[in-house]
Amino acid sequence: MSCVRRLSLAGIVLACSMGLHATPAQSTPSTAGSTGSTAATMQTTPAPPPASSAQPAPGSDEAELWYAMERAETELKRSPLLVRDPALNAYVRDVACKVAGDQCPNIRVYIMDVPQFNASMAPNGMLVLWSGALLRMRDEAELAFVLGHETGHFTARHSLQQWRKLKTASAWMSVFQIVAYGAGAGGVAQLGTLAGAAALFKYSRDMEREADRLGFASVVAHGWAPQAGADLWARMWREEQTRKYDRPLQIFSTHPASQERLDDIKAAAATIADPPTDFGRERYRAAVHPLLVKLLDEELAQRRYAGSILVISELLDDAPAEDKGLLTFYLGEAYRRRGLGDDRKKASTYYAQAIALPGAPPAAWREVGLARRNAGDLTGARSALQRYLADAPAAEDAAFIRRDLDTLGETP
Ligand SMILES: [Zn+2]
Fold first, then answer.
1. Which of 121, 205, 255, 349 lies at a CB distance of 3.0 to 4.6 Å from 150, suitable for a disulfide?
2. Alpha carbon separation from 83 to 131, 227, 266, 293, 328 (Å, rounded)
3. Ligand 1 centre from 150 Cα, in Å?
4. Region of residue 60 (phi > 0: left; psi between -120 and 50: alpha; otherwise: beta)
């Protein structure tokens, strides 16, 4: 199978990894923004076979396990959760290739449509990134840190070590279950299974520290700002704190986190003398923004509103002006859908704010119109609902809203 074919597909979970060489991810320092050359290399260089030192002896238990992983990857390529957008895949692949350095030809990147933060490495070079991570990152430097951390696990053979612990049949079955669910169902229903199986691959704290060190080295070598890693992990840690009665975030079930580890990441970033300052925010935005509405819809579909409210609020704080209306609308959506206490009131407030901001979607006017109608402001309701129909004439509920307008005494 050629490298380009493997890399153009995206997939599912499974943490753990294999280092084909013991050398850290390295490469010639270059400008982070000079994309293209590494991607081209990845597409024209066939993936070499795994190094003999990493490949299990034929007929061994481990060989069987290895075969299972290869099968899992084949299934991933057929998964309905695969994000197949060519431009996004090319972008993420290019950043992964840079941080992977000379391991680039051995790594295949899969983006999977799951609205949580997660990234994982398999021993055979299968790097999986969940779409929820793309919503939560702010810039290319953060993406590079996450991918550099994962390729660091690969380079340091951490995943292979974890993989080799999987000696029992039940553990193997878990791997197959992941594949079956990933290839079949879709949506977020399978997350419980994924989380359970991923816990089999939990890294030690020392492994995390080493992966962070390798990730940092690669990020800095390519000119990205090292503090991005600390920014991202601090944000993820805040989100984790919203899940008191829920499972840990998926990323933390395989990459153990604590305040101490966050401090380690901050300290590691602080020790880099004269750090580069490129965050690559515009490049990241250009690649991910086309998916923003989809990512936000999937985020809310999880019905984990405390986390989503935090995630969207923090996105809003950091967003450029043109996204403020959209994100404010989705913050309103999160409160409306949760519907606890005075959530509906908060939702109405956010909808009203959204329509005064750039980038508000048509649905913001619909919500404002319905709220005004309920409050007895019929004139205000009419103008907002008319604006909604003007902006979204083909909306699924357009006929319903037109009837509403009829009851308000005027047709659009
Ligand atoms: Zn890790």
1. 121
2. 8, 29, 32, 15, 26
3. 6
4. beta
In 154-261 the beta strands, taken as DSSP E runs, fall at none
Instruction: Characterize 19-35 residue by residue with b for buried, 16 or more Cβ atoms within 10 angstroms of its Cβ, and e for exposed.
Output: bbbeebbebeeeebeeb
The structural domains of the chain, ordered by start, are 3-270 (no CATH), 293-407 (1.25.40.10)
* Cα–chain center distance at 288: 10
Distances (CA, A) of 190 to 177, 203, 240, 331, 361: 10, 22, 20, 26, 30
The contacts of residue 382 (CB under 8 Å, 6+ apart) are 369, 405, 408, 409, 410
State how far the alpha carbon of 278 is from the alpha carbons of 31, 35, 49, 58, 178, in Å: 9, 14, 35, 46, 37
Cα(329) to ligand 1 centroid in Å equals: 34
Query: Which residues fall inside 5 Å of ion ligand 1, going by CB?
Result: 203, 208, 211, 255
What's the alpha-carbon Rg for the chain, to the nearest Å?
23
129 Cα–ligand 1 center, Å: 13
In the reported structure, the alpha carbon of residue 161 is separated from the centroid of ligand 1 by a whole-number distance in angstroms of: 13
CA of 118 to the centre of ligand 1 (A): 10
- What residue type is assigned to position 363 of the chain? A
pLDDT in tens, 238-278: 888 887 666 656 555 556 566 777 788 888 788 888 889 99
Confidence (pTM): 0.79
Strand partners, 104: none
